[in-house]
């Protein structure tokens, strides 16, 4: 019962097989291999963006921070949701890689930036001219840190506010595939057609060993990104092992199939929890994460039986009197099974613990 994060999931066999297949002979380094060229073209086709420039890095934090560094000067600010990953979980990487830009936090339900709140925040910035940080860029996360999904229209509304202030917009797409299959739109509709300038196109949460593609829909920023990636130590010399993963991920729409499996599992888990006495959903389940609260005893039973997930916020405690509800984040991955979901739900409800799984060897 593994719901701590999609980061805990193994790599799909197709991806490992692709890396083994790539592991023959010699090939040019630093992205000068044929597979990287093929991946770049495949992403341009998938996004209907023939002019886009595409670069692979190994972490989502690197993708976000390097992309923002190309969009926001050191003396400016990046507008993000107050619960955005770039604010809460990147240890200051965006501030570091931009050379000191600030993050201006904006509210909104389900970790979605509210367009009106964004407009107010932008209007308040630089009100005293040289004495204030300047307006820099906007970043939104899709799927969000609360498991919600922006529709293309919602993305366009954010981008319209940004464009009115002549600001570029970045999308943290660590779970882009999950958002896309949920919204039922095309990659282009979810990004550049709605006004997104740069996308962190995630692969790691959706199964890859560690590959994220930064897609710059405006190629004018490409050379700066290349320089920042190398200067930041994020240009892989044996780049073929990144591109082999991404090539396999895109082949036959594997990326969409993996995301559909994770989202389907989350929908099952969410419906099961919502039906339990005393359990409540805290956010709509629109991608692969479920945010819910249920009585403490249910948490104790589940965690005693080995279920892995985070109380969310993490500073809650299983100890203590009474049986008041505690809230949790449950993340499903491409390999979450119906059996582990059903076993978890029985534990939360108070049923028998699942039989221990015999792991041979
Ligand atoms: C929404 C979001 N963005 C970015 C990241 C950063 O990815 P990484 O941990 O690979 O740096 C994560 C991590 O899971 C994430 O959840
Ligand atoms: C850092 C932690 O939030 C990670 N990004 C996850 O989603 O599991």
Structure description:
- It comes from Rhodovulum steppense.
- This protein is of the alpha/beta class.
- The chain folds into 2 domains: 12-253, Type I PLP-dependent aspartate aminotransferase-like (Major domain) (Aspartate Aminotransferase, domain 2); 255-349, Aspartate Aminotransferase, domain 1 (Alpha-Beta Complex).
- Helix content is 39%, strand content 16%.
- It is built from 14 helices and 11 strands.
- The protein has a 7-stranded mixed beta sheet, with helices on both faces.
- The two termini are 20 Å apart.
- 50% of the residues are buried.
- The structure holds pyridoxal-5'-phosphate (PLP) and threonine.
Write the layout of secondary structure elements.
Layout: H1 13-22, H2 34-46, E1 53-57, H3 60-71, E2 76-81, H4 85-88, H5 93-97, E3 102-106, H6 115-124, E4 134-141, H7 152-164, E5 169-173, H8 176-183, H9 187-190, E6 198-202, E7 212-216, H10 222-231, H11 240-250, H12 254-274, E8 280-281, E9 289-295, H13 296-304, E10 310-311, E11 325-331, H14 338-349
Parallel strand pairs: 2-3, 2-4, 4-5, 5-6
Antiparallel strand pairs: 1-7, 6-7, 8-9, 9-11, 10-11
Helix pairs in contact: 1-11, 2-11, 3-10, 6-7, 8-12, 12-14, 13-14
Bound molecules: pyridoxal-5'-phosphate and threonine.
